[in-house]
Amino acid sequence: MRLLNTATMKVQTFMGSTMPKYAILPGAMTKSRSRTCSLSDISLARASRRSRKPAASAELSEAINSMFQWYQQVHVCYIYLADLPPDSKVAIEDALPKCKYFTRGWTLQELIAPRDVHVYDSTWTMRGTRLTLVDPISDITSVGRDVLMDSEELYFIPVATKMSWASKCNTTRVEDIAYSLLGIFDANMPLLYGEGHKAFRRLQEEVMRKTKDLTLLIWIRHGFGPGNATTVSTSRTFPASTSPITPLSSNTSRRHSHYSGTCGTRPGPGSSDG
């Protein structure tokens, strides 16, 4: 992993057990962002910028497949909200839902995986932590408070519920809506920019292969839904329901056992900015 030394502003490379304590700053690194790290005892930071230069494709694939783990190991994740007004302007509970950050596909792992998250407004004033803001963050993202407070709880959440979180998110590249969810589903797969909606289909196939959780079949698109389970849609449209979802595996339901593997997957929708 490459980390920026915030004292020298030079990039250093670390491997395996030599990994020091570090912070992550989602998005592009700026001088103002590096100053934030100096507020704590952390001297190394990782800027979560995703380069897509062809020469770096192998490194990018490894980085995105490892990203959730990097966030889990981070000492603190700093979230800078450029569109969050200063404290004197508006209550944070009212302002947070309007922040574009919560519409990004990559946001879910940035909020769930780290052991600690600090939130800053447009003036670089700290407005709270994930702990103090857990209620509004949960309301905005639909991610349960238990998951936000302990990423290990993520593994007990049904696939359909996780997909419903993603239904609110967008990415600049169509493929990234799938790649940004790899850690959420504890999945790994090669990155193929240019494959378009097939990326989400591959993600579904990998999730089905690993979990056998047939709540994946709840997804609906163009009339396909719980009433017609012959198609697994990669659409991020989620059926409106207030009922809790529980995992359903092919081992517990014989009549659904033939839906494992790649049966019935469909290309996903286009994505927008985020």
From TrEMBL:
Region of interest called Disordered, as start-end residue ranges on this chain: 231-274
Q: Which residues form the DUF8212 domain?
A: 198-233
| Entry-linked InterPro entries | DUF8212
How far does the signal peptide extend, from start to end residue? none
Which segments show compositional bias classed as Polar residues? 231-252
Any Pfam family? DUF8212
Q: Give the protein's recorded name.
A: DUF8212 domain-containing protein
